[in-house]
Structure formats: C-alpha cells, structure tokens
Design goal:
The complex is a heterodimer of chains A (147) and B (324).
Chain A lengths: L24 E5 L3 H13 L3 E5 L2 H11 L3 E4 L8 H10 L8 E5 L4 H10 L3 E4 L5 H16 L1
Parallel strand pairs in A: 1-2, 1-3, 3-4, 4-5
Helix pairs in contact in A: 2-3
Chain B lengths: L1 H11 L1 H7 L8 H26 L3 H62 L5 H32 L7 E5 H19 L1 E8 L4 E5 H17 L14 E9 L3 E8 L20 H4 L9 H11 L3 E7 L3 E9 L2
Parallel strand pairs in B: 2-4
Antiparallel strand pairs in B: 1-3, 4-5, 5-7, 6-7
Helix pairs in contact in B: 2-3, 3-4, 4-5, 5-9, 6-7, 7-9
Classes of the chains: A alpha/beta (147), B alpha+beta (324).
Chain lengths: 147, 324
C-alpha cells in the first residue's frame, strides 16, 4: 500500500493503491498463433494481462468491450486489416485514447507513415525488435501514461 | 546551374541507365530502341533517295517508300511487344520473390521470438516443452514453402523427375491423414476416407501423388467455413476423400463444405499466384501456388484434374490418373 497524492481528482483524500502492473491489460491483435503464445507467456511473466485476438474484427470488438491499457496491432490480418482497425479505434471516443503499438513485418515507408498518420503511437518491425525491446516500448508508453 | 544541365544530359543519355547496371550497349533496351528508330528513319530516307533515281513515276516511288516504312514499323512494333513481355515476366518474378519473402518471414519471426523465450533464463523447463512443438510447426511451414518454390521452378524448367512404382493407396492416404491430424483437430474439421477397393494400388510416382493429395487436402481444410465467437457453428465442416477404381484410371475426389470459389473467379483458379477474393479476406497465409502446382503435377502423371464449386457451399476437386 502506498500513499499517493497525485490523481486523487475529487476523490476523498486518503489511501490510494498504486496501480501495479498486474492490472494493466494489453490487447494483442495478431493472426499468428505462435506469436500469440510467445507474447502472452512473456508479457504475463512481466506482470501484464494479455488478451488475444486472431483477426481484425474480433480485435476491434474486444477493444471496445475490454478497454485495454495498450493495444499491440499487426497490420496483415484476416477479416479486417490493421489499418482499418486502427482507423476505427481512433474514430471511437471510447477507444481513441488507448495507445496503439503497430507490430508488423511490413517495413515500407508508406506503411509507416500511414500508420503514424492514423494515430499509432509507435511502429515496430517484428524482424528488428527482440522480446525485450518490445517490452521496453510497452513499459515506456504505459509508464508515461501514469505520470 | 551545372547540376541542372548534368541532370538533363543524364536523362537524355540512353546508355546512362545501362552503364549504371553494367549492361553492355548492345543488350541495352533504351540504346537499341534509339538505334532501331534511327535505322528505320535512315532506311526510309535511303529507299526514297535510291527510288528517286531508279523509279520515275512519283506515285510508285511513294508507294515503295511507304511500304518499306510500314514494314519497318511493323517489325519495330513486334520487337517492342516482345520486350514488353520480358519486362512483365521480370516484374512477375520480382513480385514472386516479394510475396515469398513475406511468407517465409512469418514462420521465421515465430521461430525467432519463440527461441528467445526458450533461451531466456527466466523460463522454466516445463514451459519450454510446448515451444518445441511451435518450432517444429514453423520449420514445417518453411519447408513446405521452399518445397513449393522448388516444384514451381522444376515445373517451369520442365524437369520434373518421375520415379514410378506400385503405390499402395491406403497406406499413403493414411500417412497423409496422420500429417494433417493436428490441423484437422485445430480447425474442427472431420475427414472421411473411402477407398474402393480397400487394397487398391497404382503404378505412379509416389512423391508427386502425395503432393497432389496434400495440396488438395490442405486447401479443403484451409478454406473451410470459419467459426468463432462472432459466427457460431451452424453446420459441421466435413471433408470427404474418395478413391475409386474405374476402367482405365483411378479416380480421386476431395469434397469439402468450405467457403467455395465465386463463379467469376473460377476460371483463374489454376493460375500461378491466383487467390480468390473471398479467401484473401479470411486467410492471410497462402501463395496462390497450390493449385498451379497441383495441376502441373497431375499433368506430369498424365492425368486430368477438374472441380466444381459453389460460393459458401463448398468445392469438389477431382483428378484421374490412368492405370498402366
């Protein structure tokens, strides 16, 4: 239990539990089941709760329902591709504040620009980042949100 | 200012592009076009000048020059078309390499991250075990991709080796069924097999016949009706594989209850790289090579292949291999 003075926002002054990492939800939208398993095992070990979506449509619906703290989004997806999902997420007031990390193997500048323009927070090319690197980016973004 | 002139000279220089790519002038298309154009104009001029001396009648002279000109332009046009085709083939090759690199990259990425996790000190041994299956699966994926690539390459070079022997059909079909068991279970698809008579055998190339069956079965599973939380299961996904002895041949049939092939796309289904629009939406993996390879393999075995399909109902692919 930690006394925290920031973020009391109209609540009665008093104890406020620090949100520990276990509460942070990450939605992983990716059609490769192998990657889903690896990232789920890895990220939950680091204290995150991971929700999986194997295609764009399911991912979008889960985002609206679960309101995750962060979304890891692949671009090549069945049923609704990553760009469309990103667009819809940023249009909806309920989901537009959720930071989105694009995690894909597409590395053209056109794709990167398009994703960043649509509102993605970061663009990571899978082949160039390790598990640790991705974790670092996630931590950076989620810690920034806390402050 | 100097740079500006340099740029203009560079773009006007037909040899510039080829010099960059170390192509000798006589193989350089741009340079050859220039030569062709100059040559055509020269020949027209020369034939006019010569004709002027030999032929007195202006009308005949003009006719001769015009026909020479027309003839040359026709040749130029044919050559241009030929070069255009070559350029197109080259573009298709580049696209091929691009598509395949991405298809191979996906399992490689899976392997990469999975291995990182296995090698991590924090991962307990019991968790590592599952990952070895992941590794195996992705290695298989890459093996299949590369095998398909090699098959396409051999088909194009018309050098498919044929090793014919007596093939016990029940045995190889059971072997293939085992290979696909995990995939069938994972996608909840039932496979029914019927071989008449049970001890049927065929003299043919065993490896190629297995490849044909694998390709058709893989498609049937891959394009079965998707079911998930958004689309509750309405009916079961079933594949029936039938093998029948007929008078002159053995008849194989694979019937599925999958997404089917839309009518307008049916005529392209055996083309290289073709993937129907209704499956592009569902399956991001897939090179469009499967049926192209299958058709050519059936041809190599001197057989015939065909199909019938209805969108959202399913497809029936059949092929016949002649008996010896």
């Amino acid at each position: 239990m930690v006394f925290l003075q920031k973020r009391t926002k109209g609540r009665p002054f008093g104890l406020k539990f620090q949100k520990n990492k276990n509460m942070k939800k990450i939605l992983f939208i990716e059609d490769e089941q192998g990657l889903q398993k690896t990232f789920r095992d890895f990220l939950s070990r680091e204290g995150y709760k991971v929700i999986s979506a194997l295609d764009g449509e399911i991912g979008w619906n889960l985002a609206k329902r679960e309101k995750p703290d962060l979304i890891l989004l692949d671009l090549i997806l069945p049923r609704m591709d990553g760009f469309k999902v990103l667009e819809e997420l940023k249009k909806d007031p309920q989901t537009k504040e959720i930071p989105v990390i694009i995690l894909t193997n597409l590395e053209g500048t056109k794709e990167v620009e398009k994703a960043l323009e649509l509102g993605a927070t970061t663009y990571l090319v899978k082949a160039q980042y390790s598990l640790e690197d991705v974790l670092e980016k996630i931590n950076q973004i989620l810690e920034k949100d806390e402050s | 200012m100097e740079n500006f002139f340099k740029k203009i000279l560079k773009s006007l220089n037909p040899l510039g592009y080829c010099q960059e790519w170390k192509i000798p002038p006589l193989e350089c298309p741009q340079f050859l076009f220039l030569l062709m154009g100059i040559g055509t104009i020269l020949v027209i001029l020369v034939s006019y000048l010569l004709g002027n001396r030999q032929v007195s009648d202006k009308k005949v002279l003009n006719l001769i020059v015009l026909s020479v000109g027309a003839f040359l332009f026709i040749i130029d046009f044919i050559v241009l078309k030929g070069i255009e085709k070559m350029a197109q083939a080259s573009r298709i090759k580049s696209e091929f390499i691009n598509i395949l690199s991405h298809q191979i990259r996906a399992p490689l990425t899976n392997l990469d991250f999975a291995l990182a996790f296995i090698l991590s000190e924090k991962t307990p041994a019991i968790q590592k075990r599952d990952y070895f299956f992941l590794l195996k699966e992705n290695v298989s994926r890459m093996k299949n991709l590369v095998n398909n690539l090699l098959l396409v390459s051999r088909i194009e070079a018309k050098s498919l080796p044929l090793r014919e022997k007596k093939v016990p059909l029940s045995e190889i079909i059971q072997k293939i069924q085992k290979e696909f068991k995990a995939q069938l279970d994972a996608t909840n698809v039932k496979l029914e097999i019927k071989i008449e008579p049970v001890n049927l055998s065929l003299v043919t190339d065993s490896f190629l016949l297995q490849e044909i069956l694998r390709n058709l079965l893989d498609n049937a599973i891959r394009y079965s009706q998707p079911t998930d939380s958004l689309r509750p299961k309405e009916k079961e996904n079933k594949i029936s594989l039938k093998v029948e002895e007929r008078a002159n041949c053995i008849y194989f049939e694979i019937k599925d209850t999958g997404v089917g092939i839309p009518k307008e796309e049916q005529k392209y289904i055996f083309n290289k790289f073709f993937r129907a629009k209704n499956v592009l939406k569902y399956q991001t993996e897939g090179t469009g090579l499967g049926l192209f390879i299958t058709k050519n393999l059936v041809k190599a075995l001197k057989g015939k292949i065909g199909f019938s399909s209805k969108e959202n109902k399913g497809s029936t692919f059949w092929f016949k291999i002649p008996k010896k």
